[in-house]
From TrEMBL:
This is Pectate lyase domain-containing protein. PANTHER family: PECTATE LYASE (PTHR31683:SF113), PECTATE LYASE 18-RELATED (PTHR31683). InterPro entries: Pec_lyase (IPR002022), PEL (IPR045032). Residues 66-244 form the Pectate lyase domain. It comes from the Eukaryota.
């Protein structure tokens, strides 16, 4: 086992800022703002998370209480915010977070469960949001997606998260008409997809780097490349249940093109367990981007059974003491 990433980010409160690996590496959240203490589990009002997220200035948001926040509507997060759940156990339910036309947002160590309603995602990132880092969150059982990234939102990292009890897990790229989603760039690493049915992720148009994730017991497919998608799957662990197909291609016609085409997937060093069927197409795999041309070296180790065990323990919400602000 090599070293897992981010060993240093819990040494002080703001050590998270600017430390994501991959495309979201520039996300600083509320680094340059004061600490806001959430003292109420109410949906709105003084001391609430919603009040903090609506403030226009940079904030590093922490919690003085543990418990469940029942959201009656999407909670829109403004730019330069860190929502830092370390030190408490906070669960959001009813609706989710909406990152709309914002930048530099970090969401860390929260739980999301039981979102209800049309188009209700756990974390909805659209449109035109950038420099986002989602770290160590547990997400399950929403009526739409758990994390959806669409409509020109880009430069995003999702790390050490746990996804469970869900169908359409993660959509990246809105639909075949949104050709401007060609700008989308997302890194997903050290995550655990535990029995989610599909979309781990499904990608249109953009670039996604998957590394050191563990995906098991999907019901349709694990990873899907739709129109013009570029997916690099590096040193991940795929363990099939009844459904064996790992990689799926879904051809579509981009609104500004004449031909119908799917995207491309390149698999490097992945581990396939329990009779998985790759479903990979060799044609076009060389067209997949090289992450080293976009960002510095990342913390990746060979896929192994030891890594599989670690990811089951170290993903999602963690009982971490809140670091001092020093």
């Amino acid at each position: 086992m090599g070293a897992l990433p981010y060993a240093h980010v819990d040494t002080s409160l703001r050590a998270l800022a600017g430390q994501a690996e991959g495309f979201g590496r520039f996300a600083i959240g509320g680094l340059h703002g004061p600490v806001y203490y959430v003292t109420s589990l109410a949906d709105d009002g003084p001391g609430s998370l919603r009040e903090a997220c609506h403030i226009r200035e940079p904030l590093w948001i922490v919690f003085e209480v543990s418990g469940t926040i029942h959201l009656s509507s999407y909670l829109r997060v403004s730019s330069y915010k860190t929502i830092d759940g370390r030190g408490q156990r906070i669960k959001l339910t009813g609706k989710g977070l909406q990152l709309k036309e914002c930048e530099h947002v970090i969401v860390c160590d929260l739980e999301f469960e039981g979102g209800r309603g049309h188009d209700v995602d756990g974390i909805q990132i659209k449109p035109k949001s950038r420099h986002i880092w989602i770290d160590r969150c547990s997400l399950q059982d929403y009526d739409d997606g758990l994390i959806d990234i669409t409509r020109e939102s880009t430069d995003i990292t999702v790390s050490r998260c746990r996804f469970a009890n869900h169908d359409k897990t993660m959509l990246i790229g809105a639909d075949k008409s949104h050709v401007t989603d060609r700008c989308i760039r997302v890194t997903i690493h050290h995550c655990f997809f535990d029995g989610t049915r599909q979309r781990q992720p499904r990608l249109r148009f953009g670039k996604v780097h998957l590394y050191n994730n563990y995906t098991r017991n999907w019901s349709i497919y694990a990873v899907c490349a739709s129109v013009e998608a570029q997916i690099l799957s590096q040193c991940n662990i795929y363990e099939a249940g009844q459904k064996k197909l790992v990689f799926r291609y879904m051809p579509e016609k981009a609104a500004d093109r004449e031909e119908v085409k799917a995207g491309w997937i390149r698999s490097e060093g992945d581990m396939f367990l329990n009779g998985t069927q790759l479903g990979l197409l060799d044609a076009g795999a060389q067209s997949v981007f090289d992450p080293s041309e976009h960002y510095p070296p990342w913390t990746v180790e060979p896929a192994s059974l030891a890594l599989k065990e670690v990811l089951q323990l170290c993903t999602g919400w963690q009982a971490i003491p809140r670091p001092n602000d020093c």
